[in-house]
Amino acid sequence: MAAEPLRILAFGDSLTSGYGLPDADSFPSQLERALIAAGENVKLINGGVAGDTSAGGLARLDWTLADKPDLVLLEFGANDGLRGLDPAATRENIAAMLTRLAQDRIPTLLIGMKAPRNLGADYVAAFDPLYEDLARQFQVPLVPFYLDGVAGDPALNQSDGIHPNAAGVATIVKRIAPEVIALIKARKESDSG
């Protein structure tokens, strides 16, 4: 009998959900194909909701976990930054999500964001380091910036200049897939150990 696929929850906002893209081009769909091509038996769950802030993510975390994921890719903060929300609240919300995931012993990859630069140096200084701090505090692996190599490149973004197009998502997947594979391997080792 074939083993059950590892269930990976991609939990985040419009960057996760694939805003403006056909489902097949979304981050979870492209990542699932990349992981299967790399020999992993996985099923990705698209837990992205466009417009969600870290507070929105925290509010729906419990019922999203009813899907019983084996791993979680946690991506929040873009909308907090776009709205200029207090970085301390963003930090608190993401910390609460990481605490909950740790309680359920669900291995998690934290995916970071950067603050919009037009919000000023003080905001950026408060916002940008929170992901590194939380990754260290909760001892989870970190992708420092989800849009690394994609932000600001018109060829990789939709006409709004904010959301990646299919090629932008492919660029992100190419960078994040190895991190997810490392998390899968660590999970398998802890299961067999």
Task: Detail the topology: elements first, then pairings.
Elements: E1 6-12, H1 14-17, H2 27-37, E2 42-48, H3 54-64, E3 71-75, H4 78-82, H5 87-103, E4 108-111, H6 121-127, H7 130-138, E5 142-143, H8 166-192
Parallel strand pairs: 1-2, 1-3, 3-4, 4-5
Helix pairs in contact: 2-8, 3-5, 5-7
Structure explained in plain terms:
The structure is a single chain. It is built from 8 helices and 5 strands. It is globular, with a radius of gyration of 16 Å. Strands 2-1-3-4-5 form a 5-stranded parallel sheet, with helices on both faces. The protein is 47% helix and 13% strand. The protein has one domain (6-192): SGNH hydrolase (Rossmann fold), CATH 3.40.50.1110. The chain is α/β, with parallel strands linked by helices and 193 residues long.
What's the gist of this structure?
It comes from Hypericibacter terrae. The chain is α/β, with parallel strands linked by helices and 193 residues long.
For the largest beta-sheet, the strand count, sense and barrel status come to:
5 strands, parallel
CATH architecture: 3-Layer(aba) Sandwich
* Secondary-structure-derived class: alpha/beta
**What is the straight-line distance between the termini?**
23 Å
Q: Name the poorly predicted regions.
A: none
Number of domains: 1
CATH class: Alpha Beta
The number of distinct helices, counting runs of at least 4 residues, comes to 8
Kindly state the percentage of residues in helix.
40-55%
Report strand order across the widest sheet.
2-1-3-4-5
CATH topology description: Rossmann fold
Overall residue-averaged pLDDT value: 96
Number of strands: 5
Overall radius of gyration: 16 Å
Instruction: Give the percentage of residues in beta strands.
Output: 5-15%
Shape: globular
At the fourth level of CATH, the homologous superfamily is SGNH hydrolase
Helix-strand pattern, N to C?
Answer: EHHEHEHHEHHEH
